[in-house]
Write a sequence for this structure.
């Protein structure tokens, strides 16, 4: 869940970015270069089109690192795969 300010669409990262599964903050405190915290969030989303039973529906979910790992394990248990790409 993205805590938004009064300006439409603006995410207030000072207030928080909350995992939609467990409710924990997705901001790791005092780990940024200025001690201000780093955002560690996974995003799950789907946009359904005309040919689906969910025409026009959009799903969105923010996940903390722990819950993202659980979702990845669940997908693997169903025989699915998630592509991993390393950057940096």
């Amino acid at each position: 869940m993205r805590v938004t300010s009064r300006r439409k669409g603006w995410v207030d990262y000072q207030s928080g970015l909350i995992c939609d599964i467990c409710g924990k903050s997705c901001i790791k405190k005092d780990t940024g270069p200025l001690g201000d915290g780093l955002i560690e969030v996974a995003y799950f989303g789907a946009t359904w089109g005309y040919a689906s039973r969910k025409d026009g529906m959009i799903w969105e979910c923010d996940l903390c690192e722990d819950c993202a790992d659980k979702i990845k394990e669940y997908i693997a248990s169903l025989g699915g795969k998630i592509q991993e790409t390393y950057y940096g």
User: Anything to note?
Assistant: The helical segments are 65-77. The CA atoms of residues 48 and 54 lie 6 Å apart. The chain has one domain: 1-88. The radius of gyration is 16 Å.
